Amino acid sequence: RELSKYSRFSVKELESLRGYFLDNSDYEVGHSGAKKAKLPRHKFPSVMRAVFPDIDEDAVGLHRLFDIWDVDSDGSVDYSEFVLGLGQLVSGSVREKIGLMFTTFDLDGGGTLTIEELADFVAQEGETAMAENEFLIEVIADLDADNSGEIDRGEFIDALTSTPFLFECFSRTMVPGMEFISPKLRRWQKGEKSKWDLNLLRTLWLKYSVGNAKGDRHVDITRFRKFMQDEMGATADIMPLVNKVFDRFDTAKSGYVEWKSLFNGLATVCAGSISERAAFYFQLYDADGSGEIDTEEVMEMLMSSREAADTSKSIVDGFLQMLDSDGDGTVSEEEFVAAVQNAPELMECFGRLFHTSEVETASVDPREVAKEKVVEDIRSLIETAAADPADARKTS
């Protein structure tokens, strides 16, 4: 029970973990003659696989965890060391988990993260050192607040605490297959489950970015359009909307986007909460930046959805009235977000640019939903609003 208090596992969970541990342990005889179970390095991956079935047993990060948990550096981990370390991994605070990630990536224990250390986690067979380092230079430059050329613990914790997307990527990179920090992201990329990690980011970045005279890399509008076509399935008829998305990601209005702006933006629209995605789409369609969406902008919103290209004016007017809770003829961001939160199926009207959907089934790809279905859903919502506006806003 004392161990349960400090390890953050229940007594029942500890009993289960103890079974895995003892089945793989060697035994040492102490001075008193009592036997003590110790988990040697070569058996550590097997025990961890029992807890995390999808992990890569050869991952650098997994073996680094063994070194961290082997507090007395005797080449083995005892039961207390194992459950205390595992407890921090799965039940620690956000800052504790990020701190553990930092220690794991800090292979030489020097207190900073270097390109060489990160390269050990993201390098792939057959790649040149230049290809490996080019992206990592970008990552370190963005996280390195004091421009020292390395990332210290404070910089790492601050960056990942404030940017959940980086939190996700570094956690997946630490030990591939270990889903220990955050929920799995929503579907994207041809309807498959997301696998955001530094390897995926590096692959996409090197494929679609271009270098400038200073050696920095960025994505311009041409490359972004190609990215959206190749990776997100965007078609020619929605390229005007793709251009608007690029403008939203280009926060500096420089004509190109840096790696973090691009992937943070994609993470928001592909994996953000309903309110985050609703706010993004509101700002996307608020063409004049007035903070309100009017009839013309609602028309553009619905017409830009490939599946609703034949939307009539009556549908647009009804849709606007349903969103306009105060009846002033326009829709504020607050009204828009509230409407989507109460009726997530509204995301069907404009969320398919990134193939996100609040109404997913295993057998139906959101990209293949016929336009009649979307228009029918909108009509149904409008009819409900006409019958009882309060009920329409409670629909979910």
From TrEMBL:
InterPro entries: EF-hand-dom_pair, EF_Hand_1_Ca_BS, EF_hand_dom, Recoverin. GO terms for molecular function: calcium ion binding. Residues 57-92, 93-128, 131-166, 273-308, 311-346 form the EF-hand domain. The keyword Protease does not apply. The keyword Lipoprotein applies. It holds the Pfam family EF-hand_7. CDD domains: EFh. Belongs to the recoverin family. This is EF-hand domain-containing protein. It comes from Bicosoecida sp. CB-2014.
